[in-house]
Amino acid sequence: MKQLASLDIENHDSRFDRINRWTAVMMQVYAAKAYLRFLGEYTHKQHFSDMDSILRHQGYFYCFLNSYWKCFGQSKGKRTLMASKVFSTTPELIPIHERIESLRHEAAAHNGQSGLDLSGIDVSEHDSHFQIKQSYAIALPLNEYAEYKKAITQVDEYVVDELHRSKESLSRTLGKPIITEEG
Is residue 28, in this structure, part of any structural domain at all? Predict the structure, then answer.
């Protein structure tokens, strides 16, 4: 597949590749936090009275799940986080992390048994015909969003700490401070 994104990098230096691997993870964390924020804002404004608003909310939720999980999923050339390290100081968040993982795998990425959707068919038999009524129910775990925020906050803090450690280590190796330009 052709690379669609491009960057205007004037001075690539492979010595900084291990720091650059944190860039993609940082963006996924940022995206996950943003989608969770959108969910909070959207939940307060909407009453879920029509299918479009329900599906929009579900879309934000699935984006949160996928962005969060990209931090932990295996990928060639990109940093992959290990839950055992990320949550080593907050083991009480591991069940929340595992819940996010399960929902990502069973709802957002695959058509599994997440408990967030259910289809059914009501069949009535008459003398001359069958009459059916198809139904589909969607559930959103609104009551769990505060817990998800705790998990993504821990991931964010871990990533920032590890990036700083990587920069400090490389700075010692190179004998010069590394200054990050904002933007």
Answer: yes
CA angle 24, 153, 105 (to 5 degrees): 65
In the three-class reduction of DSSP (H, G, I as helix; E, B as strand; rest coil), residue 21 is classed as helix
Q: What are the pLDDT digits (tens) for 147-180?
A: 999 999 999 999 999 999 999 999 999 999 999 8
Is residue 61 domain-resident?
A: yes
DSSP annotation of 109 reads S
* Residue 68 near residue 152 (C-beta atoms within 8 A): yes
Place of tokens 């010595």: 15
CA pair distance 170, 54, nearest whole angstrom: 47
Note every long-range contact of 166-172, with CB atoms under 8 Å and residues 24 or more positions apart, other chains counting.
166/18, 166/19, 166/22, 167/19, 170/15, 170/16, 170/18, 170/19
Digit-coded pLDDT (tens) for 66-89: 999 999 988 777 789 999 999 999
DSSP code at position 76: T
Here the tokens at position 165 are 């450690």
Domain count, the chain: 1
Quote the domain boundaries for residue 146. 17-114+142-172
Phi then psi dihedrals of residue 18, to 5 deg: -65, -30
Burial degree of 153 (CB within 10 A; 0-12, 13-18, 19+): middle
Q: Looking at the chain, list the stretches that DSSP marks H as alpha helix, in order from N- to C-terminal side.
A: 17-45, 51-70, 83-86, 94-103, 145-174
